[in-house]
Every structure is written in C-alpha cells, then in structure tokens.
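To whoever picks this up:

The parser on our side crashed when reading a file containing two proteins. I've narrowed it down to the boundary between the first structure block and the second sequence. Both blocks are reproduced below exactly, byte for byte. First block:
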Amino acid sequence: MIASPALPRAIPAPVAIPLRELIPWAIFAGFVMLFLVYIVGMEQGATAIVNGAGIHEWVHDSRHLSASPATDSGGSELKMVRALLIRGMLAGCLAGVVGFCFAWLVGEAPVNRAMAFESYVEYTVHHEEPEEEMVSRRLQSTAGLGTGTLIYGVALGGIFSLVFVAAYGRLKPFAARGTAAMLGGLGFTAIYLVPFLKYPANPPSIGDPDTISMRTGLYLVMVLVSVAAMVLAVMFQQRLAPRFGGWDATLIAGGAYIVVIAVCYLLLPAINEVPQAALPGLMEAVTDAEVTFPPTVLWAFRVSSLGLQVVIWATISLVFGVLAVRQLEAPDRVAHAHEAWTPATTA
C-alpha cells in the first residue's frame, strides 16, 4: 500500500491583537525597559540620577560597545500580550548572553588598546598622576560587561515584543516569524545603523567630557528622527501597496526614508573628537593629546560595536520569531483568536 504524501501545513492568517490591550503593558513595561536602557547607556554620563561614577565604571565596556502590570485581568488578549512580553525578554536574555560572548571575544581587544592609549596620554604626554581604579579592568571586562549586555538584551527584547504586538497582523503579508524578522531589520537600521553612520561609537579615550551633553543630545535627535521616519515609511508603504504593488511601494517608501535621513545628516553638525596630531599645512590638531589615536584600533572598535548590535538584534528577532509562532499560530489558538479578537477589531 502506497502512503499518500503529507500535505504542507497551511499557515493561518495572522489576527491582529487589539491595540487597547497593549496600552497598559506599553506604559508600564515599556517605561521599565527604557529605564534599563538608560541605566546602561547614559546614567552617570550625560545625566545622573545617582551621584558618583560607580554605575558608569561597572558597565564601562558594554556602554562603549553598544552605543508588567502586577495584576492580571483574566482576558485572553491581555494574557497573550503578557506571554509575548515574557518571550521577548527571554529572547533578549539569550541575545545578551550571545552578545556578551561576542563582545568579550571580539570587542575587548580594541577596548584594551584604547585604554592603553588613554593611559599613555595621561601619564607620558600630560604627566598626570594615576587615578585610583573604582572598578578594576578585570571586573569591567567580565562581570561588568556581562551585566550591561544582559540588561540591554532583556530591555531591548521586551520593547521588541511590545512593538511586535502592535505590528502583528498589520504588516501584510507577514505572519509571526516574518513580522519578527522584518521588525528586527527595520529596528536595527533605524535605531542603530543610521545614527551610527552619522555619529559612530567611540572607544575609551575619545570624547571631550565638556561636550558629552551636546553629543548625547545630537545622537538622541538622530535616533528619534530615524525611528519616526521609519514608522512613517512603513505606514506609507502599507497604504501604497494595494495601488502600486508591494515591491514598488517599498521602493517609494524606502526612498522617502532615505531623503529624510539625508536632510537630517546635512542639518545636524558633524563631530570629530578623535585625537589627531597637527600636520603642518595639511590639518590642525584635534584635541590636546599631541598624538594621533591609532586608526586600526578605532576601526576594529567600531566594527566590533557594529557586530555586537547585529548579533543582539539578529538573535532577538530570530528567537522571538520562533517563540511567537508557537504562541500565536497553533491551530487551537488561531481558532480561539478568530472568535475572541475579530469582533473587537470590527466593532
């Protein structure tokens, strides 16, 4: 007896989760996640809630390398948002672990060389007294780096899951895994890559303490403009797709995004604080270091910083996509979602 070939499993059409169920999680969990990102990225830098430099020193390496409601209402939609938030944080935790391994293996070498350059300038050129270490380099490069990447990964994974809830079923024609992959690519581009190309990450010893507030403000403006332009571009593409088709609509929306970013690049000032010795007749000195920062170290650091973000974003989007498929696209859950959510979205 010849067995009939197995038929491919049909992928159910994604059912959008009502946005009203996202609001309490976006307010509470989103605030917590953004606060964690702030602690890793800016606390005791451009601004400070806690006096001193302990937090800055503890997450020193990860900072340079990177540039829930308490009650349950019982509703199926709210439980789904909570379940996806937990899965996003789990994916982010895994991304933090993978990111730590990458940063330790690839990023620590240029960080150490940059620290050696800083020590050389302080002790040999400026003849300054050595400062007492608040946190040892051994702890910064291990426990401190791990703390920073884990917190950053979990926070980013939580925010990613909330954005996924808002986008799922609305980014046609993508299902759960495609939506996660698309959000990962768009998020990496808008939040990190585009601002990085204008204001790239710098290793230790680069950057004037007197300009840190200005530099942080400009970077945040670049991030906000890029994210807002990306959101509008995606909405624009979705509106144009029925008329022009998916490919042409994507090209038009992508072109509009590039135009906005190009204008922003032209309007925002350039910043160059990489130490450079004066070259008579060619260029003036940059900073008072009287020596030039090694360009190979700067290149290696920026490549490792970019690679760290690629690793974290790729891990979150791929792992969360797998977890979201199991949560959202099981046949029994899809049937229940059609019964429970569709009337709410059409009322």
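<<boundary where parser fails>>
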Amino acid sequence: MTMTTNAPRLTSLSHGGGCGCKIAPGLLSEILKGGNRLPLPLPPELLVGIETADDAAVYKLNDEQALIATTDFFMPIVDDPYDFGRIAATNAISDVYAMGGRPIMALALVGMPINVLPAAVIARILEGGEAVCHAAGIPIAGGHSIDSAEPIYGLVALGLVHPKLVKRNADARTGDRIILGKPLGVGILSAALKKDVPQGDLLRGAVDAASAMWFNEYHLFLNSGLNEDEVTVFFFDKHGLNFPEDSIICLEETWRTRPELCRKFVAATLEGWRYVLSHREEAVETVMKRAEKAQTGTNRSHQRWMLDRMCELIQPVDQGIAMGELPRDAYERVARELKSSGQLKTTPAFEDFHAPLRP
C-alpha cells in the first residue's frame, strides 16, 4: 500500500510495539496484589482462568463444548496499515488455536488518534484484520472504538473446544518438545524498524524457505498473515520434482490372495472422488459436520480451498491415463531421485510395486 503523503509512520506514533507494550509481569503481579480486592467467584465450569497464565480463558458450556475467550491488542510494530491489522488479528485468533479450539467469531478493539491518522489509513488497518478473520472463516460481529493518543488495534476472539481437549500451559511435562511457530527475533526487527534502521542491513542474505503441499499448508501460510505477494513460490512440477504422494497400499499377501477385494476397494475410492468432483459443496458440508463433532480446528474457507486444489491434482492431465493410475515414468522418476539422494539403496521393479486398476 502507498500511504498518504501527510500520514505519519505508524511506528512513530507508538511508544512501544506489539507485545513490547505489555505491562511487565512483575509489575502487573504487584498491581493485582495491591489494594483491597474483593474475591471473585470461581465457578466449577471455569476450566482455565488466570492461575496458569494461559493464552485464553475457557468456560465449560456442556459435556461436549467449552467456550474459549481471549483478547489481544497492541500498538503498531510495522508501518504498513494493512499489515498491522493482519498481524494484530492473527495474534488474537492464534490464542484460540493455542488452547486447542477453533474460532467462531471476533469483536474488534480500535483506538486511533483520529486527528493524526487519515481515515483511509485507519480503514486500511481494519481491512487487514477483516482479511484474517475472513480467511479463518469467522465474522467480526461488533466491537468498540475510541479516540486515543496512540494507534491500538486488536480483537476479542471467541472459540469452541471439547472440554477434554483443552490445551493448558500447566499440562506441559518434562521431556515435551517446544515447537517454534515462527523464527525468533521479530521483536528485534520491529525495534529496528521503529528506529529507522534499514531492514536490508538485517535481512540481507536471509531467505525463509519451506516445502508445503499446494492443497494444504500453503493456504495455512496465508491464514497466518502472509500476503501472496510476499511469498515467492517454486512449483516442484516445474523442476521435475512433482512426486506422487497419496496412494492406496496393501500387503503383498493380501493382493496375491484377494485381488478382487483390493480392486473393489480402489474402485469404491475412485467412485467417491468422482462424486466429490461433481458435488463439492456437499463434500465440504460433510467434512465440516465431522470436524465440528470432533472439535477439529478448521473452517469452510480452508476446506473449500483444499478441495479445489485436490480436485485439480487428482484429475489426470494426460487423457491417456485413468484417474488413480500410477504412470510408470512417475514411479521411475521417484525411484531415481530416492536412490541418487541416498535415501534408498534399491527399489523394486515397477511391476512388483504397482498393480493395474483393471486385470
């Protein structure tokens, strides 16, 4: 986005950025302990409160559902208004996922210096937050706004989770692995940006790369707050590395003794995919019903994306190859690459590995 020429840099308007705006834990603890504070009720339905410093509160609604409630807002850590909105919204919604749930809606929290920032810039911040919520498949159902001295944006995020599937900080155990969802050092880069340090001096020569399936993980990258124009994509099929992935595999003994059963299983699978190809919305609804019952964190937008990509991939480009058939050259290409990279020493012959769809 090209900002209005008379609009100040967002980071110049905040005394801190991102989580750097938070009150220090020690000071916050002192504040909460001070004064004559009345004890608040702790109903048994409150599964997660303030005791374990978790990402959200969790309240049991019934035996199958618990409500996740969280809020997160901060001041700008970047100068682009749209990116600031996306980052703040993603930060809030991610707390729902961190508790093991799926988001259902959000409320916007907006504080802006209306005499300093043009309305177009403020609108762009809100658009960034809306884009993230749209990708997550949830509405922004309301919110609250004030005229403030510094720009503030964030969300109240609500979600659902099965009471037995809540993920708490206190559940961590010695030996558990810590997974970093993003590289460390974002705060350092943000502080450098605030002080007008050229980003090229910090990022020159660094390239973040990941291998992702087009029908799945790539869309999750975009949901996390990346713009498509921020990502340079190299498609493996353009470089001779588009390997077949999913397949139906059976024991050699099963194939030898019950070949017709194996063929009927494959035929039923392909018939199911043919039905899906012509009834996509029905397929998405079926998946969502099962996902909601299992309390799986997903949404219709992402499921439609994956289904569209899968339909593109599963339909053969070569009209001479039947859907579900493994071409000999694809198998041999994978075999060569696995052997040349040292992952396999030998590979079976194509005839020993592959069974044709029809006898």
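After patching the parser it read the second block fine. Confidence is low (pLDDT under 50) at residues 1-5, 201-207. The first strand starts at residue 46 and ends at 48.
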